[in-house]
Structure formats: C-alpha cells, structure tokens
Amino acid sequence: AIALETDTQRGRRRDALTMLDESGVWVISRDPGLPELLAGRAWRALFWEARARVESDMRFVVVGHALLEKALAPYPSMTGKCLTLISDSLDPDAADALAVIALETVDTPRLLAPLPIQGIPGWDAANGCVVYYANEAIFRPAQSTGS
Predict the structure, then answer these.
(1) CA torsion 133→135→137→142, rounded to 10°?
(2) 61, 24 in Cβ contact below 8 A?
(3) Is 145 exposed, middle or buried (0-12, 13-18, 19+ CB in 10 A)?
C-alpha cells in the first residue's frame, strides 16, 4: 500500500504502481539472460533468436486491468509494463508471492520495461516470421543515452 501523501503531486513510486495496475505484466523467467534482452529492448534477439528459450523458460501474465481490456480487441502496438520475476517455477500462482516482494523495490517507472504484447511468441500468428519484429513503430529500440 502507498502511505498517505502529504502533497498534491504523485511520486515516482505511485506512478510506477499505477502503470502496473493499468498495464502490468508479470514476466516470469527461469533464465536470467532473457529479461536482460527485454530490458535492453533487443526484440529480435529475444522474440526471434531466443524464441525457443522464451517459449520454454518464460511466462507472461497480464495483470493490468486496462491491458486485459485492450486484449479483447488486440492491436499491434499494444504495450504492457513489466515486472520481471526470476524463478525456477513458471507457475503464475507462485509468481504472485514473488511479485509482492518485487513490488517493494519498484520506486520509479523506469524500472518497468515496455513489452509489445503481440511480439510474445504465440500471441499473434503473424509473429511467426522474423520480419514482424522489424517494425520499429511497434518494436522500438532502446533510447540512446548519448553524451
């Protein structure tokens, strides 16, 4: 729970928790290398080159109420915000306990990687082709930090 705020501005933690409430996805992974690809927005490497590993070692559990509603009429740029959970078990029920612990560490929206939902293997039949992941309007690269 969020403590009572004394001013009228929302804090970064509250913004992050609101994003999860609306568009959250628990990303459960047995392989710690896969979430690194997700955080780095290496979409082709994650969803195409590591496709078999994603299918066997990751689970995506949509928990955000607005994202669940959007899934009723999915569209290519539909995006969730991820809370990554590393676990030996891919059981979504077991992930709930991990999520409670992980939520304590979320203090800024920057910790929540974007996830183009229709890029998840099996979500959209069209993503069974590498060219699907070349659309940078959907699969946006990481922002350059430039100097």
Answers:
(1) 50
(2) no
(3) exposed
